[in-house]
Design brief:
The complex is a heterotrimer of chains A (304), B (295) and C (481). Chain A has 304 residues and is mostly helical. Chain A is built from 13 helices and three strands; from the N terminus they run H-E-E-E-H-H-H-H-H-H-H-H-H-H-H-H. Chain A has a single domain, classed as MetI-like fold. Helices cover 63% and strands 5% of the residues of chain A. Chain A has a three-stranded antiparallel β-sheet with strand order 2-1-3, with no helix packed on it. In chain C, the strands form six sheets. Chain C has a five-stranded mixed β-sheet. A three-stranded antiparallel β-sheet of chain C has the order 13-7-14. Classes of the chains: A mainly alpha (304), B mainly alpha (295), C alpha+beta (481). Chains A and B meet through helix 1, helix 3, helix 4, helix 5 and helix 10 of A and helix 1, helix 3, helix 4, helix 5 and helix 8 of B.
Chain lengths: 304, 295, 481
């Protein structure tokens, strides 16, 4: 019976993985094809080159060329690895986009971890009046949909002249978003109060308790917050769309739009090759840190 | 207030100060400002002009507004329960002790890591009526006339719902963490009492992770009512006959294409009220079902 | 002791992190706009929408300009969604000096006071309407002021596949001259697969029996013409029926007899071929620029397309035998040579830091040599009144003269100049959708558009009325400077 159950689990997992992976494999496959093969009907998985037999030699058939019906055409599998470098070159500012994205990630991760930890500490390990009520307000802010604040925040940034710079994208992260504060607060609440009490009796300032006792104990949770923020910033599309005007300042996620041009001439193969490249770092990062992730979330006890 | 209490208050506020600054600048002020704008006629370039409740009255008679609301509620009504079931089932599967578990976990989480522009494009391809993988697969198993997906007004929303199921990675990871926190002792005693797998699931697992289900439910309501990116990238104007025009997309169009910022703010406020209402309904109706082990 | 060392390292790392963030933050601070080059030239920031070879052609002209004088250096940036970005940048107070928009954007931007009027500068430079093919000059005018100069124009014509004509027994050199003739030719050109006595037969549409036609049980293999292929100008088909979309400055005329006939045409095509058959046929997303493009791959015999189509034919289907001619109207005698003239334009946004230098660049582009170089590079034609013979001889598009003649035609129509055009266009497209899906009659669909857009237009006009005197005075003052 146990073997049967295991078999079902394996079957479901494999089947599910296949379904989940198909779009990604398609993305990579398209990234390796020349443009005319990206839309072939029926769809092909493996990019190829066609050769026609001429005398004793094989000559490559160019796209759009018609071959006499009597000639034999041979197909050989030929992934176009050069698409990756060509896509980067076509995107023109790729190194700058990479740099911008990395800068933003560094800034937002630092800002988020620091500010959320500070605020979460204040909401959990210091007793002061009105604390719980203010925290409920903080939770309520999670329910405010982005469109409500989108326009006034935009006008706010406009009045201080930050539109067109990277600042709107990272300054906010130094202001402790409610979700991360919530997450870390739950974690901080699992640390026994006696630790803080003992330190207070010894004469430690609250900040020192925070910095030297509580924070080091919560490294997994902090890593989770940092990692989530890294991934969010890496893939952020809407923020750069609204706030960035000069192409030089774009991030990677927004730079992908570069491959769409007027009148529907999208360069699919470059778009997919670039997307694969952009998704790769985050995928690798997740693969190596998933254990921390899951452990980190489990101990924060979202259960409440 | 005693001296000690005052000291605690100051220390507490100091720690929380980053959040307070953010709250005032990025939540409180914008919420009030957008409320004000919603009573004005405002395009980006010129000053707002007060027009009273005209925007709200316009909404009542705007057939496109109602259509976008219907589309969004339809989407939410299907994607929330389906997403819940899907992410929970996948998490349960991934919690079993099988070989290659971490590889499987990574695979199921991968879709959430792809930039949204790329994933939208991939799905545009897959759902293409003539060249797409999906229809090619359907035809090869014998369905002669599969739907045209994004070109057919009856199928655009189901296509987007299908796409949303592909990205259940985040919810799944949270469920995984919660599942691992369920004490083994409970399972063992259930086993001793002779409970089968399904019974164990229903009576031990579900109640123990019910707070997390509640959390994901609320997040799901908030998220699905604001669905924007995929719909905007794939079907910019709302798709055939506006069948996939979602509330947030129509809001964006009003704000940035038609330059009716005041109207967009009014729409945003209505959305906020709807989210609050649905959250309240969800909380009340599940209150009996959620079990907090800490209490 | 190891603990203290570790804590030291931790503290040091943290300090470094904070400092580097501070430094990076400052770096991200105040985008000090580069005002001058190393050799003291004024830098003109120019935002343009083009990518690929179109962008390269403009860059070549920009390089020529930069090399031709020593005071100004134009820096061209490719910006996607340039209209939206320009609006936000102008509102944000840091627009570029010159931007490339579409002619249909001018009205909305001008009305919102987002552009600088050019009349004064044009007068000083001696540039007037007679320098241009009239329709393109008029496209840049609004409420009596000039807001832009043309960069690359286009006109639309019927493109037809000569081989498909020949196979259907039609004279490949003779395109249809009226809409009725086009429909008749289309019936001959359309090929379907139909099941007859348990066998699938491939026939031309004309050879189907009437009950077969009514049953819609056939599958479309290739079609003569469909209004929705490519469907980029659905609302504007009315021009070929002698219709108008607006009247005067305040009235929306969606529900006129001509528009009803236009939508009636959509309706009849949908009824003829069947909604389901049409849905899967034709341009699906993304295959325009590929060998699978319906016209390029021989699935559609006739399309309304613009002067740029040559580029795609050349790239993806170089063996295609094709022709271009004026697209026939419903009544070719009353409305000969109808086309839609559009233009890419150059504007100076309000608040630009170097408007005078920007205008110098625009003036350069609009002189014959550079303009023809640009047009040749993009394989379009020149909007100037005079086109050199060298240009015509060097141009790779064999039908370029047809496009130029169409642009000069008195029936060269344009997109209506109004600030609610985006909404009007969207509504009309939805209406066309509904009619081609047989979900609404033309009267219903157009009635809805009329009601909704007139209402929106009135609202916008109401706002304009409040500010118009002040606005016009401001523009006049600027002009008199």
């Amino acid at each position: 019976m146990r073997i049967f159950k295991k078999a079902i689990v394996y079957a479901l997992l494999l089947g599910g993985s296949a379904v989940f992976l198909v779009p990604l494999l398609w993305m990579m496959s398209t990234g390796l094809k020349p443009l005319d093969q990206t839309m072939s009907m029926p769809p092909t998985w493996l990019p190829y080159r066609e050769y026609v037999q001429e005398g004793s030699q094989l000559r490559e058939v160019k796209a759009g060329e018609t071959v006499p019906a009597t000639a034999t055409v041979v197909r050989k599998i030929a992934p176009r690895w050069e698409n990756f470098s060509l896509a980067i070159a076509a995107m023109k500012y790729f190194p700058r986009y990479l740099l911008n994205t990395l800068i933003l990630c560094l800034l937002t991760v630092t800002g988020t971890v620091l500010s959320s930890a500070l605020a979460a500490y204040g909401f959990s390990r210091v007793e002061w009046c009105g604390r719980n009520r203010l925290f409920t307000v903080a939770l309520a802010t999670m329910m405010v949909p982005f469109p409500v604040v989108m326009v006034p925040v935009y006008c706010l940034f406009r009045s201080v002249g930050w539109i067109g710079t990277l600042k709107p994208l990272w300054v906010g992260s130094f202001c402790a978003g409610a979700f991360n504060v919530f997450l870390l607060r739950q974690f901080f609440m699992t640390i026994p109060k006696d630790l803080s009490e003992a330190a207070r009796i010894d004469g430690c300032s609250e900040f020192r308790i925070f910095w030297q006792i509580v924070l080091p104990l919560c490294r997994p949770a902090l890593m989770v917050v940092g990692l989530f923020q890294f991934m969010a910033t890496w893939n952020d599309f809407l923020g750069p769309l609204i706030y960035l005007t000069e192409q030089k300042d774009y991030t990677l996620a927004l730079g992908l739009q570069f491959f769409q041009s007027q009148h529907g001439g999208t360069e699919w193969h470059y778009l997919m090759a670039a997307s694969t490249l952009i998704a790769l770092p985050v995928i690798i990062l997740f693969f190596f840190t998933q254990k921390t992730f899951i452990e980190g979330i489990s101990m924060t006890g979202i259960k409440g | 207030m005693t001296r000690g209490e005052r000291h605690s208050l100051m220390v507490g506020l100091l720690f929380v100060s980053p959040w307070i600054v953010g709250f005032v600048a990025f939540t409180l002020y914008p919420v009030i400002a957008s409320m004000t704008y919603s009573f004005c006629d405002y395009d980006v370039l010129t000053k707002p002009v007060w027009i009273g409740t005209l925007n709200y009255r316009e909404m009542l008679t705007d057939s496109v507004f109602w259509q976008s609301l219907r589309n969004t509620l339809y989407f939410a009504a299907f994607s929330i329960p389906l997403g819940l079931v899907m992410s929970l089932s996948v998490a349960v599967l991934l919690n079993q002790s099988v070989r290659g578990r971490s590889a499987f976990r990574a695979i199921f989480f991968l879709p959430s890591l792809i930039p949204v522009v790329a994933s939208s494009m991939i799905w545009l391809w897959i759902l293409n009526g003539n060249f797409g993988l999906l229809n090619h697969a359907l035809k090869s198993i014998g369905i002669a006339h599969p739907p045209q997906w994004l070109a057919d007004p009856a199928w655009t929303k189901p296509s987007l719902i299908l796409m949303s199921l592909w990205g259940v990675g985040h919810a799944m990871v949270i469920y995984l963490a919660a599942l691992q926190d369920v004490p083994r002792s409970l399972y063992e005693s259930a086993d001793l009492d002779g409970a089968g797998a399904w019974s164990r699931f229903r009576h031990v697992t579900l109640p123990m992770i019910s707070p997390v289900i509640y959390f994901n439910l609320i997040m799901g309501i908030i998220g699905s009512l604001q669905v924007f990116s995929q719909a905007f990238i794939m079907l910019g104007g709302g798709g055939p006959q506006r069948s996939a025009l979602f509330y947030a997309v129509y809001l964006y169009l009003n704000a940035f294409e038609y330059r009716q910022m005041g109207y967009a703010c009014a729409m945003a406020w209505v959305l906020f009220l709807i989210i609050l209402f649905l959250t309240w309904v969800a909380t009340r109706s599940t209150r009996k079902l959620v079990y907090y082990a800490a209490e | 002791m190891a603990g203290t060392a570790a804590r030291h390292a931790w503290r040091l790392a943290l300090r470094f992190l904070v400092l580097s963030n501070f430094a990076l933050g400052l770096a991200g601070c105040g985008r000090a706009p580069d005002e001058r080059t190393a050799d003291g030239r004024v830098i003109v920031h120019y935002w343009e929408k083009w990518t690929g070879f179109e962008s390269d052609s403009m860059q070549a002209v920009v390089d020529d300009f930069n090399a031709s004088q020593k005071c100004i250096f134009v820096e061209k940036l490719t910006v996607s969604e340039v209209d939206r970005k320009l609006l936000l940048a102008t509102a944000g107070g840091n627009p570029p000096d010159v931007a490339g928009l579409w002619s249909s954007d001018i009205c909305g931007f001008a009305e919102k006071n987002a552009l600088e009027p050019l009349d004064r500068r044009l007068r000083a430079a001696g540039i007037g309407r007679d320098h241009y093919i009239p329709v393109f000059w008029d496209l840049c005018a609004y409420r009596g002021f000039m807001w832009a100069l043309p960069s690359t124009p286009s006109s639309l014509a019927l493109h037809w596949n000569k081989k498909m004509f020949r196979d259907a027994g039609l004279d490949p050199e003779r395109p249809p001259r009226s809409l009725a003739e086009l429909e008749a030719m289309s019936d001959r050109l359309t090929i379907v697969d139909v099941v007859r006595s348990n066998q699938t037969v491939r026939l031309r549409y004309v050879d189907l029996t009437d009950p077969e036609k009514a049953a819609h049980e056939f599958r479309l293999v290739q079609v003569g013409h469909l209004p929705q292929e490519p469907g980029w100008w659905m609302p504007l088909w009315a021009y070929w029926f002698g219709g108008n979309l607006t009247e005067g400055e305040r009235k929306i005329t969606a529900l006129t007899p001509e528009n009803l006939r236009t939508f009636g045409w959509f309706h009849s095509v949908a009824e003829k071929y069947g909604v389901e058959n049409l849905r899967g046929f034709g341009a699906s997303f993304g295959n325009f620029a590929s060998p699978q493009n319906p016209f390029l791959s021989g699935r559609v015999a006739m399309v309304l397309q613009g002067v740029w189509m040559y580029n795609f034919i050349d790239k993806y289907a170089p063996q295609l035998e094709w022709g271009a001619a004026p697209f026939p109207a419903e009544d070719p005698v009353a409305h000969p040579n109808v086309t839609i003239a559009e233009c890419d334009v150059l504007v100076i946004p309000r608040g630009a830091r170097h408007p005078a230098e920007g205008f110098e660049f625009m003036r350069y582009i609009n002189s014959q040599g550079p303009m023809e170089k640009l047009a040749l590079g993009q394989r379009k034609f020149s909007p100037l009144a005079v086109t050199s013979d060298a240009f015509l001889a060097a141009h790779p598009n064999p039908f370029i003269r047809t496009f130029i003649a169409l642009a000069r035609s008195p029936n060269a129509r344009t997109v209506p100049c109004m600030s609610v055009w985006t909404e009007y266009n969207d509504e009309m497209r939805v209406a066309a959708d509904r009619v081609t899906a047989l979900q609404a009659t033309p009267a219903e669909a157009l009635g809805d558009v009329q009601q909704r857009i007139q209402h929106n237009y009135d609202r916008v006009l109401h706002r304009w009325d409040l500010v118009k005197d002040a606005r016009i005075k401001e523009w006049r003052d600027d002009d008199a400077r």
